[in-house]
Amino acid sequence: MKNITDSFVSLGHWSSAGSFGLNTDILATNPINLSIVLGVLIFFGKGVLSDLLDNRKQRILNTIRNSEELRGGAIEQLEKARARLQKVEIEANQFRANGYSEIEREKLNLLNSTYKTLKQLENYKNETIHFEQQRAINQVRQRVFQQALQGALGTLNSCLTNDLHLRTISANIGMFGAMKEITD
């Protein structure tokens, strides 16, 4: 306190001297300057500061209110999801129980169907083999017949002379003529 009074005393001392100057005593002038600045800030800044604090308070309250609403919605969705999960678990257990019997039934149906298909394929295979055997036998018969016919024609051509050929034709014409008289 003594420094503050000393600074006022020194101000009075300077003013009586008739000149204006600066007090360079830092310890004496800083508390006075700080008190003036703080007084001005409090006087002019309390309205701005209270407005800032009120705005901040409203934002915090709005955030809390929104959070509570979101929390309520999340709890509601969680309850719905739990109910759906429970329903799905019940249905899954039913499907599982029904599924095993259905799987066994489908397995038996598949085995029976496969057995029938294999049986049909076996029959088709046997029919195809039989058909191919008959075709091969017919081809062999045709070839043997063609070779026999060619051999017979070759033998006939080598043994047949013109005279024998004319007598055979005359005999055949005679037989056809006799058959014609019988039929008439």
From TrEMBL:
Membrane spanning stretches: 32-49
Pfam families: ATP-synt_B (PF00430)
Superkingdom, taxonomy of origin: Eukaryota
Membrane association type: Single-pass membrane protein
Keyword terms, alphabetized: ATP synthesis, CF(0), Chloroplast, Coiled coil, Hydrogen ion transport, Ion transport, Membrane, Plastid, Thylakoid, Transmembrane, Transmembrane helix, Transport
Molecular functions (GO terms): proton-transporting ATP synthase activity, rotational mechanism
Alphabetized InterPro entries for the sequence: ATP_synth_b/b'su_bac/chlpt (IPR002146)
This protein's GO CC annotations: chloroplast thylakoid membrane; proton-transporting ATP synthase complex
Record's subcellular location: Membrane; Plastid, Chloroplast thylakoid membrane
Coiled-coil parts of chain: 71-98
Primary location recorded for the protein, binned into one broad class: membrane
More about this protein: In plastids the F-type ATPase is also known as CF(1)CF(0).
Subunit and interaction comment: F-type ATPases have 2 components, F(1) - the catalytic core - and F(0) - the membrane proton channel. F(1) has five subunits: alpha(3), beta(3), gamma(1), delta(1), epsilon(1). F(0) has four main subunits: a(1), b(1), b'(1) and c(10-14). The alpha and beta chains form an alternating ring which encloses part of the gamma chain. F(1) is attached to F(0) by a central stalk formed by the gamma and epsilon chains, while a peripheral stalk is formed by the delta, b and b' chains.
General function of this protein: F(1)F(0) ATP synthase produces ATP from ADP in the presence of a proton or sodium gradient. F-type ATPases consist of two structural domains, F(1) containing the extramembraneous catalytic core and F(0) containing the membrane proton channel, linked together by a central stalk and a peripheral stalk. During catalysis, ATP synthesis in the catalytic domain of F(1) is coupled via a rotary mechanism of the central stalk subunits to proton translocation.
Family statement drawn from the similarity comment of this UniProt entry: Belongs to the ATPase B chain family.
HAMAP family reported for this sequence: ATP_synth_b_bprime
Protein name: ATP synthase subunit b, chloroplastic
Organism: Dianyuea turbinata
Lineage of the species this protein comes from: Eukaryota, Viridiplantae, Streptophyta, Embryophyta, Tracheophyta
